[in-house]
């Protein structure tokens, strides 16, 4: 039975000073949702008895099944205290690391947070994280030490031990807070020091230096949790009880005959009761006395638990009840399960919800008391200064602080996420209970219908025929509805102003910058939607179609909402992607980006099980992207749809959503395809055993020395080509990579020139020149770019020695696709080509006609190398000789096809062969990982990296904290499920972030076999270990259906023989 | 009393694959292990004993009839049975064993799928399909691989069949055509018929400059046509081998 209906809640909404927006945050399984349950039960939404078992806020089936929360959801609760009525907007957040983005969205909307800590497990990685999040968002936390019952029942501690344990846990929490505080102070100090240094430089007067740390000046006393300040609750959410020292001070002040105020102060801490003098004394530990906390509180608790739960002394229950002044129902007294008895007893004695809501209302700020610092942090990101905003924007700060719902105040609403909601469950679509008059009306109608039917009995057939097309239409309409059975609700908080249904507001995207808009006065098209926007536009205009109070699993329809509330807004799915700001003025800045502690790193490729259902999948992925703030969906160049999630559990939830809600089709998940590159290197001087090769006898039979210059003829023997391959130094490769766009443009230009010059040869010189003059000249800017490129190249080459000196004039083409990191170099004596020196024109040479084909052959060769058909990288092909004896006898050209085609294939084949006689290597894509890791598990992190072929580049301690920042490199091919391994091995104390950084040569020959003396000594004639490069190569070859050197059957004799019964 | 023939030292060969060679009007057979002959021919297996059951040359393996020495010398001109076996292994016709056939079909299938994925795009997104989707689609249309046809030929066949299953198209080539002279207009009409879409067309003093997308299958015929129709005055230039979107894109 609900105690408070929505009308009451609406009334309360209008008084911001009595609103509390709070969220519950903690490590996974520390009891957030259970705590939320017991708070909800205080409002009668769920029964007292079911609280802790129902997990009301976990509305998804998979949440219930797995027993973890996966999304943050809000509920509005009513609480009365000291004749005042309060509205508490409670947000329950998930604790699993995969969903910490949901915590960010929840924390963003709140003014206060309840931090729950399991007293048995103590401070866990996620506890640190949520404390950090709360701290960085400037919201005030209160602490709940949960699961105290476990100390009694499971760990069976004595009250005194439990007290010590509790103080230790509390110290742990405070240590984390202190660490956060010092880290921030140090950061600020560094920043201010830099400023000071700049100033000092200007003044030229820095013989004075301040050595005192800012830490000494900063005040941190208000930060810490302490029971005597009343911001700590001791609780057992499962049994539904909780208390602060204040609760007991009230209960015992009469019994002990002490004033409540005094008792409150001495209940926590090293105080004891001197029975003789009847006075509270300090130093209980020293004198081996029981601290007051143990004597007054814990002893009593232990007593109750021991009698009821541990010893099952049923007859004593009524006695206890009488002592505590509690009346248990007869049913509870008769109950066989002692735990249930205990629960009903404790709930009445020390009601958890009451204690916590009291504390929340007292200790946590209302929306009106929003701190100026918090406002500034919301309005501008860390990089930007608040003062850099327009005056108009700066004025809005006052509106934030006022939190006024007056009509003339601007509307400012922040949407922190979009969540999907079943359309049929919306309040407006829910079937309403019929009133009696309506019932009567329906009855009447039904009767009429029946009579009509009787009359038209004969016409039924005809009617049904008429009906059928109509019905079909209805059906198709229904189908459409079914397709879009989910709708998106914005999870939002009003910071200022009052919003009504039907209001039109600006929707400001996350990249919106008010100063730009205000300065240049752009007209805003009101009819635009998100998908119509250009990349630099971030404003749309939307009508607010519906407003809701969030009630956990349900929504309550409302007509208007005022500042300080957390609400749901419907009908914005076409305007808001993930987060947005709604405002009545464009001067409002976009809220600073949320700081996600976890970035999505688990990449998987997704495809529909049935290939023809691809469009549904794409649509589903778009919806998923909108509903989840921590998901990335990419369409890769290979055509794969890649889903990037924060972790395994998150991935599973996303897939579940896709399968059942968004796409409604079966999908398959696989590892994404990892690209490789092929290259050649200088012949190595050391062998695999790290011995010099030159000083040893090398087994010549294995390594047949081949001429590095490959000579190849076209099929009709008309043309002879000599090719040599050599590796390009890394500096040049980098330059080529950087200037890919430029190179592409040049190639395009050359192609047109080529055709034009051929045109010229013919009789249309006039037109050709004309074309040349108008269109096909490079622009000034391009020429300049080419010039700088040439200079860069020249300067690099001059450093590299004589081999590369003349490179600029030798470049013939680059590839693959005319812009890659491979070069075709012209070393011929008698044939000139043009690439960068485009002004020269050579037309008379018969070879000129086939130059295009020649280059095409090179392009094809670099696009698919001989190792495993992956593109080449950093390879130069030098053409040493190219001769062409053209004979015009027709029969030859017919047998082998046109000469141009022959040249293409000859060059391609030649390049591949030239590549193969050099030492070949595979290149792997590398991720650069940035890992924040606790120093305790540094060793385990290194081990996990080592297993996957990664290596550490650098690591340093973060000042003021106990965590390291480690930079490492990891091959992309090994990165799948790396985060999972890291988390399991480091118990969640390491959080990696990965980003593609570069290509790296794998320094093993894929075809390597021992061939030097030392290698024979080490490995014998046949190497049995795993060759990493070969393993990669074989997997790619197997995927592409190319031949590998794997044998079908290793040992012929070991095959199963089918006996023929002989 | 008739003698009872008791084979005492008979070697019974199981697990046999026979390789036959007809030479000089005689048939020779050798007994090999199953699934090994192809890897010998591909030079993956180097140990002859892993391939041959016995180094004897037979006229009939199943009956156990060994070839006569004189015949061998006469026909192969050598005495060493192992050498003869190697020759038969190289040149003879063989029974393909189950695993060999299986892997052959498997790799050919993958080759076909890779070729299809390489040549085609999704016309809606102008992006290639991943190979795994193509493989699934090929299986869905019940295409069976023919070992005797080339992968490319079969890929082209299967693209036609796949069009019924998923939206798929050959990646188009982008070409530029320059036409001059009197017949420019006439030729242009013919050219445009072969192109799928004309992206850009302008005329300047009697010269047509056309940029269009064509089906790769039409490249040859278009090239031929322009050369003959314009008697060498027209230009035909390949701008882009495959028209598709490059780079990653966030949804």
Element-level helix/strand string of chain B? EEHEEHHEHEHHEEHEEHEE
Helix content of chain A: 25-40%
CATH architecture of the largest domain in chain B: 2-Layer Sandwich
Structural class, from secondary structure content of chain A?
alpha+beta
Rg of chain B is 30 Å
Give the overall form of chain A: elongated
Q: Using only CA atoms, what is the Rg of chain A? A: 38 Å
Strand order of the largest sheet of chain B: 9-10-8-11
Structural class of chain B: alpha+beta
Strand order of the largest sheet of chain A: 14-13-19-10-11-18-15-16
Main sheet record of chain B: 4 strands, antiparallel
Largest sheet of chain A: 8 strands, antiparallel
End-to-end gap of chain B: 93 Å
- Fourth-tier CATH superfamily name of the largest domain in chain A: P-loop containing nucleotide triphosphate hydrolases
Specify the overall morphology of chain B.
elongated
The CATH class name of the largest domain in chain A reads: Alpha Beta
Q: From the structure provided, what is the oligomeric state, counting identical versus distinct chains?
A: heterodimer
Assigned CATH architecture of the largest domain in chain A: 3-Layer(aba) Sandwich
Number of domains of chain B: 3
